[in-house]
Amino acid sequence: MARTKQQQREATTAALHTTARRLFTEHGYNNVGLDTIAQAAGVTKGALYHHFTSKAALFRAVLATIQHEVGERVHLAAEAHPDPWTQLVEGCRAFLTASAEPDTQRIMLIDGPAVLGWHEWRALDERSSARHLTEALRTLVDNGTIPPQPVEPVARLLSGAMNEAALWLAQSDNTEADRDATMAALIRMLNSLR
To answer: Does Hydrolase show up as a keyword for this record (predicted)?
Structure first.
């Protein structure tokens, strides 16, 4: 049975997305050309341009997917617990765990801000894991677990600390032990908010 044009478009977009994600992870944004992506995906460069206007547009789509996936992992880890404090801690743990994966490290934490610029990268982050962190902190302020205070600066401080920890963990020779030590330090920081 012949595929419809819509199915062909979706298959081509998925192939480009999957291939670009793998190549950006393995080689970094600056070391991957559109010709390489098109050839590895089995499409023409014209087909690539039909779906994505530029390498940056393709990268943005890949990054948005990764940030959405990380946000979903944070959300699912948090929602597995009824207590808002445990939700915060387990959401942070899920973020650090997800951030240890090579595609997340390279695409989301290293190349993302450099390629898209800080403001656009931050806007994408706000729609994913950063949003969950802000919501968790707001719930904890509202229910009296942490004292009344502006949530936005606390969320940004914690987000920055976790992003930096994730980058450090990416270079670790003993990732599991360093991740455990990082979580212990993060829990101490979080407890100081109470």
So the answer is: no
* Pairwise CA distance, residues 165 & 149, whole Å: 25
Per-residue model confidence as pLDDT tens digits over 1-54: 567 888 888 889 999 999 999 999 999 999 999 999 999 999 999 999 999 999
Q: What's the whole-model pTM score?
A: 0.88
The three state secondary structure string of 114-176 is HHHCHHHHHHHHHCCHHHHHHHHHHHHHHCCCCCCCCHHHHHHHHHHHHHHHHHHHHCCCCHH
Positive or negative, the CA dihedral 111, 113, 116, 122 is: positive
Q: Which of 193, 131, 127 is nearest to 156 (CA)?
A: 131
- How many CB atoms are closer than 10 A to CB 30? 11
> C-alpha distances in angstroms, 40 versus 103, 140, 190?
18, 48, 45
- Of the candidates 43, 112, 192, the one whose C-alpha atom is nearest the C-alpha of residue 35 is 43
